[in-house]
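LOG
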Amino acid sequence: MGRFVKGSVVVVNYFFTDLSGSKRRPAVVIADLDGDDTVLCPIVSSRSDRYSVRVSSKDISGGSLRKDSYIRPNILNTLDSSLILYEMGKLTPEKMAELSIRLREILGL
């Protein structure tokens, strides 16, 4: 499978925090690191909080979401790229800029 770039919207199997199972979920690539690691933020259809960035199908070029959702930049995951099942599109530059601002706020950068 090819490399995924910052802003790619991908699908991965996310494990529950208690490791009791997993769920197939979209995520946004935040960084494609040297080697096999990729940093992601999950996209969820509920559970928004003050850090969430609302996203809809109009914010994804080359793909769509089943319903309006939320990117959770306060939940960063580093996964081996081989765990990414497929790419479903890319965030628009405008939405990626909004997400980048929120990440900088969270990380204090």
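LOG (cont.) second protein
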Amino acid sequence: MFYWLIELSNTFPALSGLHTLLNVFRYITFRTGGAIATGALFVFLFGPWIIDHLRLRQGKGQPIRADGPQSHLLTKKGTPTMGGLMILSGLVVSTLLWANPMNPYVWIVLAVTLGFGFVGFYDDYLKVTKQTSSGFGGRTRLAIEAAIAFVACYALMRLGRQPFSSSLVIPFFKDVVLNFGIFFVMFGAFIIVGSGNAVNLTDGLDGLAIVPVMIAAASFGIISYLAGNAVFSDYLQINYVAGTGELAVLCGAVFGAGLGFLWFNAPPASIFMGDTGSLALGGMLGSIAVAVKHEIVLGVIGGLFVLEAVSVIVQVASFRLTGKRIFRMAPIHHHFEQLGWTEPQIVIRFWIIAVMLALAGLSTLKLR
């Protein structure tokens, strides 16, 4: 919305005197800073009202898994869920205010985010209304997520330049790309769906998921800005994707909304993110990675999410094949709880790992 002020100053002579002042809205960096501030302020201001409303509507709050850590039945019982609504509200408002509304990448990523958020919301709704730790069928949920991701990937392929838009870029080399052709839609959809569910699995302790999401969003904000800038992308010898720089504004909105949410989600949490937030934010990260052609880098920056997802896959596979469990409990953050680590120890140490992985992922920008 603010981006249109530039056009207004060019269209109406009466505003010509403000052209120099309004020209600052052309800069992605300025609008990204505005998106961070707006997202944080929105959640700070409206967060308490949303929490009170959700607590009143949900009554008993999010059901706690009976097969999870027993301490959670005492410390987390009655806490409302669907806190992702706070993040998504701040994200949407901030993005609409500060992003360029003519940029198609913004709308595609925002559509994936809200689509996955709706799937997560319905899942949370079923859990709360039925007071069960399981929502609707896993296959149905994955099918809906895959459909959203397929459409988004197809749109991203048509939007980019061929054959680059249907190729996988190897980040450690200058010119190594693997052209998947039309099958890139399947690969891209796998990245988006996998990212959404990996973040969802990570969301199990107070503050555990939101900070790594913010770190990943900040990292991809930098990558989006560089990949969408012809000068910087040429200097770094990364692939230039025209228009993706605007995604930095969306990443800034996520970072700001995440800051506001963390204020209420810090231990002991006043509200849980729920599938509403974790699926949406994971899907957003995956779609941005596909848009800027840094899918492999997502696996590095989001390595913590990958670790959580792999721990569940390994645990299930091991139990089905051998009848034995590798971890005391999965996802892996529960394994450390069973080992005697306190919740703050796990959360802060995982945050440290997320920072180190983000630095490793960003370092790939100069490894070509």
